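ARCHIVE RECORD
Type: protein–small molecule complex
Small molecule: 4'-deoxy-4'-aminopyridoxal-5'-phosphate
Source of inputs: curated submission
Record status: active
Notes field left blank by submitter.
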Amino acid sequence: MTQRIYNFCSGPAALPTEVLEQARAELLDWRGLGMSVMEISHRSDEFTALIRQAETDLRRLLDVPDHYRVLFVQGGASTQFAAIPLNLLGLGGQADYVDTGIWSRKAIEEASRYLKVNVAASAKSNGYSQVPAQSEWQLDPASAYVHVTPNETIGGLEYLWTPDIGTKPLVADMSSTLLSRPLDVSRFGLIYAGAQKNIGPSGLTVLIVRDDLLGHASPQLPTMLNYQVAADNGSMYNTPPTFSIYLAGLVFQWLERQGGLPAIAEINRRKADKLYQYIDASPFYSNPIHPDSRSWMNIPFRLRDESLDKAFLAGAEAAGLANLQGHRSVGGMRASIYNAMPEAAIDRLIEYMDDFSRKAG
Ligand code: PMP
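STRUCTURE (tokenized, with ligand):
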């Protein structure tokens, strides 16, 4: 077998080896058709069954209530930054957004092109090291919905709680946290996520939308971005990203085999705790995030002396620990440890970090 390294990339991220092996085994001849899944019509009975199965499996994993639609769309989470205000414009021309980092700010910037954005709270005042407590939020009664980014992939800031905003729809960019643990979908109006972290390859975006939020779109909304159209057409108004949906379906089945979200959450919590504890105890490494806001999925850390960063990264690479470099906008290091990252990888990383810090003195 080829040697697989531990890939800490933030996304596209590592996929479960078992899933990739299954895809490899089925690549040339999927289900005895003599063709790959990439080469068949999306309108075929086989693909229609596949996409419906993927939806059923995702619904079961997340226990999605019946009055929510699961949609598979394209354009990444970034397209949703515009699609959300445009789909909900009929509910009102203003929305509340909470700013917890780079991805919230991108969502705010894009939404501001279509409606009035009230920034209800911002982590700017604490240097983006802590999610603002809900008691500090200045929600505007005139806003049609409230948008949050439950996990900031770059900053490593995560809500370890679900906001309670009453009857207004809570809209959440869950790109880097969906499927990392059980979720009470009924607390949200709309959940969206680019697939390339915990779901599958890029090219697919998953939406979970409450029924009553369909049908409020701006008349200017492009058909391809209209949730109602996607829902009415079973996510196949046009040709969907068939291979990404196939692979996501394999990931959903893999998750089920791991024991579903309660089991994966337990592993994820253990992985994150272990790494944070090591960093906190070390005089050589540090993590800037307040303990009540620390991401389970993306763990940024710094070396005591940043002139050692290059050597740290080169040594990590040589030890089979890839893509630990922090985002270009923040520097330092970041370990993205999504579902597919085995616990053994965290042990290896800590071992390497310890070894490096000792040699560096
Ligand atoms: N939101 C979050 C939280 C993200 O992490 C990302 C991508 N890293 C995006 C949005 C943008 O996603 P995409 O590249 O799929 O447009």
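CURATOR ANNOTATION: The mean pLDDT is 97.
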